[in-house]
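Structural prep section.
Before we set up the soaks we want a predicted structure of the protein with uridine-diphosphate-N-acetylglucosamine in place, mainly to decide which crystallisation condition to try first. Input record follows.
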Amino acid sequence: MIPILITGGAGFIGSHTAVALAEAGFKPVILDDFSNSQQSVLQGLETILGHPVSCHVADCNDYNTVLDIFQREKIRGVIHFAAFKAVGESMDEPLRYYHNNLGSLITIMEVMLATGVSDLIFSSSCTVYGEPEELPVTELSPIQPPASVYGNTKQIGEEILSDTVKADKPLKIIALRYFNPIGAHPSAQIGELPLGVPNNLVPYITQTAAGIREQLTIFGDDYPTPDGTCIRDFIHVMDLAEAHVSALQALQVINTTSHYDIFNVGTGQGNSVLELVRTFESVSGQPLNYRIGPRRAGDITAVFADATKVNTRLGWKAKRSLKEALADAWRWQQHLGTSDSAG
Ligand code: UD1
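Run finished without errors. Recording the tokens verbatim:
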């Protein structure tokens, strides 16, 4: 089995990708500093896979430790998730964000070059498109000036990748621009574990339904959309996880020594926040306590993917429905119970 390093592998998308990789016959090796994730994820992975997953507790910025992990585990490819992702916090703590998100990427690439590992998948985001002028967005849609430090770390991250490949360094890289990942593994053994009050919509919904939060506030219903609420491309996290496997397999058969490409990873369909709430109510069988509040600063009106490139070139397509994603998120919340997962 080919060992693949998953930095941030104990996080939401990373842990589901560990499952998808193992199911595709790779050996996932997790590197995580657990600054925004919990050790219990490893137990969940072991239950799903039937064996323990190799995990190293380390900071991706620590060159010597990362080098040692590459050598000991005989790493042959990397999926780099490790990053901070809270938009608001990034505005208060810019240096922490630049240091962590960009320092770790540079360190990983340096270690890859030092050890002759070529294949890298990078977690980027649809945030690079800002408020798009045309929908759906393709990979050729214009990049907008970043609205947050977090968003800027993704844009600069992509530049670091393309500049390195332009310099003919022996790296084969795919950046995946994620839309809005939601849901959980259908076993309810792993899922999203937000620390404290969730920023993202679906954990806020499921925690409200579980009685942990009193009420969901929908941030604005006066947007120029059919029902007035924002529109996003909500993608099941297992579909997103499987896109990483497709990307990695594509890199493995590329013959050139340097390669860089970018793919949108979304369903291709936009759903409004209110549609999401209604769908959740129907799959959970209970009404959700919500109110309409003011807009949240920095929110985009509508963004969803044109997924043609990833569908045709990587042979990957989202398979799971919005209903399935919300049913899985709800099952996961019920597994967690009514305690605040942040403790
Ligand atoms: C944001 C980032 C995205 C990042 C992701 C990671 C931007 C523009 N987007 O996505 O790049 O990858 O977080 O966490 O920077 N909503 C409510 N009530 C809530 C929470 C959310 O109405 O309590 C609404 C929001 O206004 C938004 C939608 O739900 O319209 C989705 O919000 P969220 O889950 O936070 O994701 P994004 O903001 O789309």
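Observations: Residues 85, 87, 125, 127, 148, 151, 180, 199-201, 204, 216-219, 230, 232, 273, 296, 299-300 surround uridine-diphosphate-N-acetylglucosamine (CB under 6 Å).
Flagged for discussion at group meeting.
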